[in-house]
Structure formats: structure tokens, C-alpha cells
Amino acid sequence: MANPADATQRPAPEEAEERIPIMQHVLENPFLLLFLGVAIPAVFYIIWGIMEIVAIPIAK
Amino acid sequence: MSAILPPSKRIWWKQPLDKIELTWIAIAFVWALVLFFMMPYWHVFGKQNLSNEAYRISTESYQKKAQDMVDKYTARTETEQKIPVVHPPAGSDVYLIARLWAWWPILELENGQSYRLHLSAMDYQHGFSLQPSNINLQVVPGYEMVVTVTPNQSGTYAIVCNEYCGIGHHTMVSRLYVVDKK
């Protein structure tokens, strides 16, 4: 793996105060990932699908 | 270095991306976009993935609608089961029932005319497959599917059930006639 350029490294004492990016928080939290992995498909497939089926009109 | 050790820097998010990895991601993403946009493209410009209307209906009501059409427009009967062949007026609503294990009635449509074809089942899920045009729709009880069809070639078409529906599923075939306008 290529070593990142040293210019992008921050000095060690400042790292403790540096804000951790949100996306990194998300990808580091396994239970959040578990929740998203269940909730996102459940909403977009199951719940959306049921909403569409319930909305089918009655035949004339 | 290793996937099971913690990253060497606390903030690994901002590490620069390797060029090869970026190229790989770009190719995969472009291909994913191609496949995604193929779906609406074929729906609009293709001849087989039709959009349909859908309504809830009871099996009794649907059977009555089909029977009304048969009572008005029967031209003759065919086959040993005496299935009516129906010739409805151009532009009208035509009804097809799927039930274990037959399609009823037989439709005779006019070339170049549009019809609203209604499909529903009386018992279980069936598959309507018009061959050789290869137009396929699922047919379920309790729901009435409507497609607007315009035959553009006269002849005899086969209707095959392509959703397994029981022991007689392989016998569930019928025909559809398209005749030239008299």
C-alpha cells in the first residue's frame, strides 16, 4: 500500500483535538452500520412496497 | 498493513486514494450507471416491459365483467371445452380470466386497433405470456391488471401460463387471434 505523503500528516499533539470526519464515525461504528443495513432496505423495499400496494385503487 | 490491526493514524479518512483504486471504482460506477439507466430506457423504447394499470377487484366482480363481454360479443366456440371466441369492438375493454387451468375466453382482436386488455385470476397466481411477442405479465387474484395493446401483425398468437400454478400448469395454454379489419 502506498504510503500517504508526509505533508498530509498532522503533528501528533494536534491530532487529539482534530475533529474526526462524520463518515469515519459512521464506518467505525459496527452497530450503527448494522442498524443502517437493516433499516435502509426495510424502508425502501418493504415499507415503500407495502405503501404502493395499499394505494392500489378499487376497480370501477 | 493488516486489515485486523487498527489504522496507523487516528484519522484515516483523509488518506489519499491510490490511483488504481480510483480507476477501479470509476469503472465499476460507470457500469452500474449504464445498467441502471438501461431499465427506464427499455421501458420507454422497448416493446416488452409494458407499464400497466392496477386495480383491486373481487373475483366475482371480475368474472361478471368478463361474462358480460362474452355474452355480448361471442362469435363462435372452439375446442372440445367449447371456449367462446369473442370479437369485441375496436377500442373497447377486453377481459381475460386466468384460472386453474385455462384462459377464458379466446380473444379475437383487430389489427391496428387499440384495446384495454384486462387480466385477473380466479384462484392462484398465473403468468400471462403472449408468444412470440414475448409480452409477460403476472396475473393475481384480487387485482385487475390493465394494459393498452395495439396488435400490429395479424395471425394466431399463443398465450402460455408461465407461473407455476399446480399440477395442470403445463396444460394452461390458449390462443389469441388478430384479424385484419373487415
Report on this structure.
- The complex is a heterodimer of chains A (60) and B (182).
- Chain A is mainly α and 60 residues long.
- Chain A has helices at residues 12-15, 22-28, 30-54.
- Chain A has a domain at 21-60.
- Chain A is built from three helices and no strands.
- The N and C termini of chain A lie far apart (66 Å).
- With 182 residues, chain B is α+β, with helices and mostly antiparallel strands.
- Chain B contains two helices and twelve strands.
- In chain B, strands 2-3-6-12-11-8-9 form a seven-stranded mixed β-sheet. Chain B has a five-stranded mixed β-sheet with strand order 1-10-7-4-5, with helices on one face.
- The longest helix of chain B is centred in the N-terminal third of the chain and has 27 residues, at 19-45.
- The interface between A and B is medium-sized, with 18 and 18 residues.
Describe the SSE topology.
The complex is a heterodimer of chains A (60) and B (182).
Chain A: H1 12-15, H2 22-28, H3 30-54
Chain B: H1 19-45, E1 53-56, H2 59-73, E2 74-78, E3 83-86, E4 93-99, E5 102-104, E6 106-110, E7 115-121, E8 126-131, E9 135-139, E10 143-149, E11 155-161, E12 173-179
Parallel strand pairs in B: 3-6, 4-7, 6-12
Antiparallel strand pairs in B: 1-10, 2-3, 4-5, 7-10, 8-9, 8-11, 11-12
Shape of chain B: elongated
**What structural class results from the helix and strand content of chain A?**
mainly alpha
Number of helices of chain B: 2
Task: Tell me the overall shape of chain A.
Answer: rod-shaped
Strand elements of chain B, count: 12
Q: What value does the average pLDDT of chain B take?
A: 93
Query: Termini of chain B, distance in Å?
Result: 80 Å
The largest beta-sheet of chain B arranges its strands as 2-3-6-12-11-8-9
- Proportion of residues in β-strands of chain B: 35-45%
Largest sheet of chain A: none
Question: Which class of the largest domain in chain B in CATH terms?
Answer: Mainly Beta
* CATH architecture call of the largest domain in chain B: Sandwich
Runs of chain A in which pLDDT lies below 50 for 5 or more consecutive residues are none
Which regions of chain B are unreliable across 5 or more consecutive residues at pLDDT < 50? none
- Output the number of helix runs of chain A: 3
Q: What oligomeric state do the depicted chains represent?
A: heterodimer
Largest sheet of chain B: 7 strands, mixed
